[in-house]
Design goal:
Elements (H helix, E strand, L loop, with lengths): L2 H5 L5 H12 L3 E3 L6 E8 L4 E9 L2 E6 L2 H4 L5 H14 L3 H7 L3 E2 L15 H13 L10 H7 L1 E8 H7 L2 E11 L2 E2 L3 E2 L4 H6 L3 H11 L2 E2 L17 E4 L4 H10 L3 E4 L9 E2 L5 E9 L3 E10 L2 E4 L5 E3 L4 E5 L2 E6 L4 H7 L8 E4 L3 H8 L7 E3 L7 E4 L3 E8 L14 E9 L2 E3 L7 E3 L14 E4 L2 H13 L3 E2 L7 E4 L4 H10 L3 E4 L2 E4 L3 E8 L3 E12 L2 E6 H9 L4 E3 L5 E3 L2 H13 L1 E3 L2 E5 L3 H7 L5 E4 L1 H11 L19 H16 L3 E3 L7 H13 L24 E5 L4 H11 L5 E3 L5 H6 L6 E5 H6 L1 H4 L3 E7 L11 H8 L1 E8 L11 H8 L9 H7 L5 H4 L1 H9 L3 E2 L13 E8 L3 H21 L9 H16 L14 H16 ...
Parallel strand pairs: 4-5, 6-12, 13-19, 14-19, 14-21, 22-27, 23-30, 31-36, 32-39, 40-45, 40-46, 41-43, 41-44, 42-43, 44-45, 47-52, 48-50, 48-51, 49-50, 51-52
Antiparallel strand pairs: 1-2, 2-3, 3-4, 6-7, 7-8, 7-9, 7-11, 10-11, 14-15, 15-16, 15-20, 17-18, 18-19, 23-24, 24-25, 24-29, 26-27, 28-29, 30-31, 32-33, 33-34, 33-38, 35-36, 37-38
Helix pairs in contact: 2-4, 16-17, 18-30, 20-21, 21-22, 31-32, 38-39
């Protein structure tokens, strides 16, 4: 790029126009440059004598001009004129050009004012503003005489002679200039890219762009004197744009023709129907005369009448001062021969040769439309062909039998009344012989008109279905990948194609039929695909069809030797039945708890026969046309949202059905609350709550057979206890932990709800399995997704009337992991062999397995309830805040207890007065150290940085779940040392994140990275550095690791995500450790807001008002 082009964007168009005028007027004088200067010039315009200097240092150039316009801070016309002069004088100096290509303009600066001179900003601004308002040359008002002197008009001349000779559209460019007396004589004109940029007329720019993409044409000079010899002024318009280009030229009013005798008046575009090429026969006593005509409706003209007739898919014809579209039906040879000047006589065929002539005529590959006189011609039959497709396995080099999954050779051909026509075969007509294979007799004078459009559409359909050309055989042979055979042939058979495989016909199944019978505790499914063969009806059993499909076959051998199509969609839906059932002889066997799956996977019309037991179960199931929402029980403290009441209705549906299910709502939608409301009704209400709507199911009056067992990760045990205390205080809750577990087992009957961890369940499974529970609920149930884990095995041993799993993971996207959870919920429902897990979760290429997950999701939908935040957004407030109570690890708890004991003794002994104003700093230090111990032991002793900490473990679990769901999260802490520990864990797990604290300098870049990079989902931020002033609306989750209990400060941190521009619901979580100073301060916050603010403020403030009683509560 030249210096001129490099700097052009910095100049206003009006400024460049004035600079160009100055340069063209020769008012720029270059002077000898001095050291460090690139340009020095004197520029004179009407009002100024300006000196222009361009300094350069390295790759940076700094311009300067003495004019007032430049002093106002704008690039001026003098500078542009000097640049134009520099380009002119240095264009022959390549070395200097190379040197200047990379210079960058510096920013113009206003000159320093002279001492004692007062310059107001407006003094320079008005000059600059008026300068920009000056019109450009193209906008300037000119007199009519001036317009005539400057206007140039381009004309597009069709060279008729050369167009006819070359059978292409040859265009010459001419131009004329307006004078006071009118237009000048036409002169040859040449265009190039530079000329194109200077054209003012948009029509000329468009046409010239088309011409520059055309083929330059050199005129035949042997017997013709060219009007112009310029290679840039004569063009041959390629096929495909002839009509378009010529129409644009004609519409310009400047499209002329050169017929060898001078220029004509402008051509006019004829927008009527295209002229069509016809063969017209006339018969006299001795001859058949053949004429070639152009026809449009009832209007005819001889083929020699037009000045030019160019055929093709965008043919044009020029006649009588007009240009019109022309359709020659691909018969350009007919046009060329009949327009040949040497062919003066018409084509005549003696009467005795007419039949022979017609026989040969109809074998020609291209023919116009034909009209014969009476008694001449053939009987033309118009019909659509039958498409035939022959499939054969590709031969192997050694001649052995190819494998079933090898590519197939596919030969396509068209059948017209028994006549075979291959694709691409020349000729529009197919002659018919006297004897046909189908036994039909036709007159020898009959011919069939091929439907070439139909044939072309058939070949296009094969391409869309995955057929590809064969590189070594004829055009009619294609390659079909074996895995696409079933889908492709099924679709083609529906289109009426005749298909053969290994020279045997391929058949579609007529229907599928099943019969269901009931055993002692199972259902038996018989039936499969029904085919009509030469021997009658044949049923292909479902297990056999599935086995053939899994082996890579798209068809199955029928009893008459033909091939039966295995429909992909049918296999996709029913193949899951084979995975869920167990093969017994000629049928599949299912457990009674699989009736819902059978009903979902079998269409009603497919069940040809079913016994009364299955029909009763199906009818009972269909009574639940939809789940009715249920109100929370009266004893429940709180109000459920509408979607949570629907959750209660779904839980009752599972209980009525006698199956377990997965409550898979998004994190933060209240899975725990929904389960507690259900358990409140079950254990303390005596019966289920009333729906309050018609059509509700009969109440469940069955008394609980024992307490309900809740199994959770250790870190959230106390969450369940706290939530129950808040919403269901009437429930008797016991925490199953510690050395008193044995005695607690003996008194399980005294509890409604028992909460324990997965670890204790594994350890005590031999004892727990002896107890009967009303419900066993697995919270964070993904903990047992590995069916061979000890937790999964132990969970399956528990006895319960009802089972439930909770997880925020979108399990419908990970169905391969579901088998273990469903084996706990509903043993045997997904086949105890685990085949379901393998077929759905395995990465296989079989078409059916690719869609197994979606089919399984449909079948399992009654047992999985998942609502995302987006789905229930209207039910939620704009921002949800929640506290997560964490249970410290033993080592962390021990450290905290030691610190607490130390500070309790020292502080309470030291503070004997009702207030602690004299010991404020000591109290603050103690509270700080206790808060750090609650966050992580490593904040007290760096040697303990590798030890586990409750908050970090809970945070990482939450972040992992959010990442799976595609959310972004902000993590705030006022302890950068705690953030450093979180960073180490994220680095170890190769999780991408951003980080910002007080030492961060590139804050903007980090914020933009987090906002815009979809793979960066976590932002660790220190409170001091990022608690305010940042816009982080890409996040919809906020975690506060060490709450500072000042509502205003917390709100500022949360509002980094919850602000204008946020389109999603924001969820904020405070992490506090159970039974620590954090929890005590939270309790005190509700009592003494000023106290909470003082503790966080750290500057004393109201800390002096902290009483000894308050201190005792904090250190309790």
């Amino acid at each position: 790029m030249s210096l001129l082009k490099n700097w052009a964007p910095y100049f206003q168009s009006a400024v460049k126009d004035r600079g160009r005028s100055i340069h063209l007027a020769g008012k720029v004088v270059r002077h000898q440059t001095q050291a460090g200067e690139y340009v020095r010039a004197q520029v004179v315009d009407d009002t100024n004598h300006a000196t222009v200097v361009i300094h350069h240092k390295g790759l940076v150039a700094t311009p300067h001009c003495t004019c007032s316009e430049f002093s106002a801070g704008a690039y001026c016309c003098h500078l542009w004129a000097a640049l134009l002069q520099e380009k002119t004088e240095r264009q022959d100096d390549p070395a200097s050009t190379d040197r200047i290509n990379y210079l960058r303009p510096g920013k113009p600066k206003a000159r320093k004012r002279e001492p004692g001179r007062q310059v107001k900003p407006a003094d320079a601004d008005w000059i600059n503003r008026l300068t920009l308002l000056r019109p450009t040359r193209s906008e300037s008002t000119k007199s009519p005489i001036s317009d005539l002197l400057t206007v140039r008009q381009i004309c597009y001349v069709v060279n008729i002679d050369q167009s006819n000779r070359s059978n292409s559209l040859v265009i010459e460019l001419w131009a004329r200039t307006a004078t006071p007396r009118g237009w000048s004589q036409l002169r040859p004109f040449k265009i190039d890219l530079q000329t194109l940029e200077q054209m003012d007329d948009p029509i000329d720019r468009h046409i010239s762009s088309l011409l520059l993409g055309a083929q330059p044409y050199r005129l035949d000079t042997m017997d013709y004197t060219p009007l112009t010899a310029q290679t840039g002024g004569v063009f041959s318009i390629r096929r495909g744009i002839r009509q378009f280009a010529l129409r644009r030229m004609a519409e310009s009013g400047r499209c002329l023709i050169d017929d060898g005798e001078g220029m004509t008046k402008p051509l006019v575009w004829d927008n009527d129907e295209p002229w069509v090429l016809w063969i017209a026969g006339s018969l006299d006593t001795t001859n058949l005369q053949i004429d070639l005509q152009l026809r449009r409706g009832a209007v005819c003209m001889d083929i020699k009448t037009p000045l030019c007739a160019l055929g093709g898919n965008d043919g044009v014809v020029i006649y009588d001062g007009k240009v019109a579209p022309f359709d020659d039906h691909g018969s350009k040879r007919w046009v060329n021969q009949f327009r040949d000047e040497l062919q003066d006589e018409p084509l005549r065929v003696p009467a005795k040769d007419i039949d022979s002539f017609l026989d040969r005529l109809y074998l020609l590959p291209q023919l116009p439309m034909i009209e014969w006189p009476d008694g001449v011609g053939k009987n033309v039959i118009t019909t659509d062909p039958v498409v035939n497709l022959d499939l054969t396995p590709q031969a192997t080099p050694d001649g052995s039998t190819p494998p079933a999954n090898k590519n197939l050779d596919a030969t396509v051909w068209f059948e017209y009344h028994g006549m075979r026509v291959n694709p691409g075969q020349s000729g529009r007509y197919v002659p018919i012989q006297e004897e046909q294979k189908d036994g039909k007799n036709f007159n020898r004078q009959s011919i069939i008109s091929r439907n070439l459009k139909f044939e072309g559409n058939a070949i296009s359909l094969l391409s869309r279905l995955g057929f590809r050309p064969h590189t070594t055989t004829s055009d009619s042979t294609l390659i079909l990948p074996a895995q696409l055979m079933a889908e492709a042939t099924n679709l083609l058979l529906e289109q009426g194609w005749h298909i053969r495989a290994n020279y045997k016909s391929i058949r579609q199944p007529t229907t599928s039929r099943f019969a269901i019978s009931t055993g002692l505790d199972w259902f038996e499914l018989r039936g499969g695909l029904k085919f009509e063969t030469e021997h009658g009806e044949q049923i292909i059993r479902l297990p056999d069809a599935i086995a053939a499909s899994e082996s890579g076959q798209g068809t199955i051998l029928l009893d008459d030797g033909s091939q039966g199509i295995l429909p992909e969609q049918w296999l996709r839906r029913h193949g899951l039945l084979a995975d869920l059932g167990t093969v017994h002889g000629d049928h599949l066997r299912f457990q009674t708890n699989q009736v819902v799956l059978l009903d979902a996977l079998l269409e009603q019309q497919e069940i040809e026969q079913a016994d009364s037991s299955f029909l009763q179960a199906q009818q009972r199931l269909h009574q639940f046309d939809r789940i009715e929402p249920i109100n929370e029980p009266d004893a429940f403290h709180g109000t459920l949202r509408a979607y949570q009441r629907e959750g209660l209705g779904w839980l009752r549906f599972l209980r009525w059905l006698g199956t377990g299910g997965i409550l898979a709502d998004d994190m933060g939608l209240g899975k725990t609350v929904q389960v507690l409301a259900m358990l409140e009704a079950k254990h303390r209400g005596g019966k289920d709550p009333v729906s309050g709507q018609s059509g509700a199911v009969t109440e469940d009056h069955e008394s609980p057979q024992g307490p309900s067992l809740i199994i959770v990760p250790r870190s959230v045990i106390f969450n369940w206890n706290d939530e129950s205390s808040r919403f269901t205080p009437d429930l008797r809750v016991g925490i199953y932990s510690g050395p008193a577990r044995q005695s607690m087992r003996e008194s399980f009957g005294n509890y409604d709800l028992i909460v324990t961890s997965y670890g204790l369940m594994r350890r005590d499974i031999l004892e727990l399995r002896e107890h009967k529970f009303e419900y066993v609920v697995l919270d964070e149930a993904q903990a047992i997704k590995n069916s061979s884990s000890q937790s999964a095995k132990a969970a399956r041993l528990l006895q319960a009337r009802h089972r439930l799993a909770l997880t925020g993971t979108p399990v419908e996207n990970h169905l391969g992991d579901l088998w273990s959870i469903f084996e706990f919920l509903n043993p045997g429902m997904l086949n105890t062999t685990g085949r379901f897990a393998r077929s759905v979760g395995a990465s296989v290429q079989n078409v059916r397995n690719k869609n197994a997950a979606s089919e399984a999701a449909v079948a399992l939908r009654p047992f999985i309830l998942r609502r995302t935040k987006q789905q229930v957004l209207e039910e939620l407030p704009e921002k949800t805040e929640q506290t997560i109570v964490c249970q410290m690890e033993p080592m962390q708890q021990k450290l905290y207890d030691q610190l607490l004991k130390h500070y309790r003794q020292t502080l309470l002994e030291k503070v004997q007065t009702p207030t602690i104003s004299g010991s404020a700093l000591t109290v603050l230090e103690a509270l700080l150290r206790l808060r750090q111990a609650a966050c992580h032991p490593g904040l007290i002793d760096p040697k303990l940085s590798d030890q586990p900490a409750a908050k970090v473990e809970v945070l990482l679990e939450q972040l992992a779940e959010l990442q799976d769901e595609g959310h972004k999260a902000l993590v705030f802490s006022q302890f950068t040392s705690l953030l450093a520990l979180v960073r180490n864990r994220l680095d170890h797990q190769n999780i991408r994140y951003e980080y910002l604290d007080g030492q961060t300098r590139d804050r903007k870049q980090r914020v933009e990275h987090f906002q815009n990079d979809p793979d960066c989902k976590i932002f660790l931020i220190s409170l001091k550095a990022g608690g305010f002033g940042l816009n982080l609306t890409a996040a919809d989750y906020v975690f506060i690791l060490d709450p500072w209990w000042n509502p205003a400060v917390e709100a500022q941190a949360i509002d980094r995500a919850h602000r204008i521009g946020q389109t999603r619901h924001v969820f904020a979580y405070r992490l506090i450790c159970d039974n620590t100073v954090e929890q005590r301060i939270t309790e005190l916050q509700q009592q003494k807001q000023q106290l909470a603010e003082a503790i966080v403020d750290g500057h004393g403030g109201l800390i002096k008002n902290l009483s000894r009683e308050d201190l005792q509560q904090l250190l309790s």
